[in-house]
Specification:
Length: 350
């Protein structure tokens, strides 16, 4: 499946794509949230949403050559490409959201083809309509995507809510990985400071609550083959788990509702390594296990981890465990055949 550059390098499960352009709306009046692009300075373009400049991004969001060059510098052999979360458009009517997501997914598919084995795909689906979401998930799997990226909430509904269970059942049946990323997080009214605090503080809070909802709903006890990962190190989950376990042991109502020790359930999740701190990464490994941590960088946005493998090296001197953290765990999560790396090495030796 993967070609040049994969061998002995890391797999990055947390990277984002923004298309160079967006199509004009094919219907009558475009939904207010339908995005457009305008040129900015140098190699940058600005995403316009609801008539406002949402974010100015560089060509690394769509340029295959630039991404590959950055990957080589970072020691990354394969990136999983997923849309910028604001493009999920759960807040849009389902039909135009589906059409826009299909366009973005097709852009990702084109980048995968052009990348000659350096990329795999985690597309997006219109989860405000479960039937449409499952249909697009089936199309993505047929295109060869590894799975999907979804939001930590769907218009305020946490991912562990029973109403979303049919989608996760379909993901399990299709053997599709699910990567949970923060989007439009709760608690924004409690932040004091500039808008960037949404990414810095509110994102990990929403991801932690999303992961906790999957525990309190017993999701992975119902779907034991589902592969689900949480961005930003699982957010606040590692800090919430001691309280959740103690509450589970103290309150009969929680004991009745939660069918297994929250710590045991949490170790069924994957989490990425995007915590910017070696002691915190070490703590995550102690909570989730060394077979559940994945490299995640948030490339190509400014707030990304530029040396993900160096932090793993600082934390881990055991070569076998370091290999899990950089390659093998992500290979399992994304459904990449482990043997492929050996094939790549053999090809390089010829």
């Amino acid at each position: 499946m993967f070609g040049r550059g994969c061998q002995c390098c890391g797999i990055d499960v947390h990277t984002h794509v923004v298309p160079h352009d967006f199509p004009a709306y094919a219907g009558g009046n475009a939904p207010p949230a339908w995005p457009s692009m305008i040129a900015a300075s140098d190699c940058h373009r600005t995403v316009v949403v609801n008539g406002k400049n949402y974010r100015t991004v560089s060509d690394a969001c769509w340029s295959v050559d630039r991404r590959v060059a950055a990957m080589d510098e970072m020691g990354i052999g394969v990136q999983a490409l997923s849309p910028m979360p604001e493009l999920f458009n759960y807040w849009m009517d389902a039909v135009p959201a589906r059409d826009l997501l299909r366009y973005t997914n097709d852009v990702i598919a084109g980048m995968i083809d052009a990348g000659q084995g350096r990329f795999c795909g985690l597309g997006a689906v219109p989860l405000q309509d479960i039937d449409m979401a499952i249909a697009e998930l089936r199309r993505l799997v047929a295109l060869g995507f590894s799975g999907v990226e979804i939001g930590s909430n769907i218009n305020g509904v946490p991912v562990g809510d029973p109403s979303l269970l049919p989608f996760f059942e379909a993901a399990q049946d299709l053997d599709a990985a699910v990567f949970v990323h923060a989007v439009r997080p709760t608690g924004m009214d409690r932040l004091v400071g500039p808008g960037q605090l949404q990414q810095v503080l509110a994102y990990p809070t929403d991801v932690g609550l999303a992961a906790a909802s999957c525990i309190t709903s017993n999701m992975l006890l119902k779907l034991p083959r589902l592969r689900i990962a949480f961005s930003h190190g699982g957010g606040t989950l590692a800090s919430l788990l001691p309280r959740l376990r103690e509450g589970w042991s103290v309150f009969p109502a929680l004991k009745d509702e939660i069918d297994e020790d929250p710590y045991v359930q949490a170790r069924r999740f994957y989490v990425d390594s995007l915590v910017y701190d070696t002691p915190t990464l070490r703590h995550l490994i102690s909570i989730f296990g060394d077979d559940r941590i994945l490299i995640g960088t948030d490339y190509p946005f400014n707030f990304h981890d530029r040396k993900p493998r160096a932090r793993i090296s600082e934390q881990q001197s055991d070569a076998a465990i370091a290999d899990k953290l950089t390659f093998a765990n992500a290979a399992g999560f994304l459904g990449i055949i482990e043997q492929q790396r050996g094939n790549d090495l053999n090809m390089q030796a010829r």
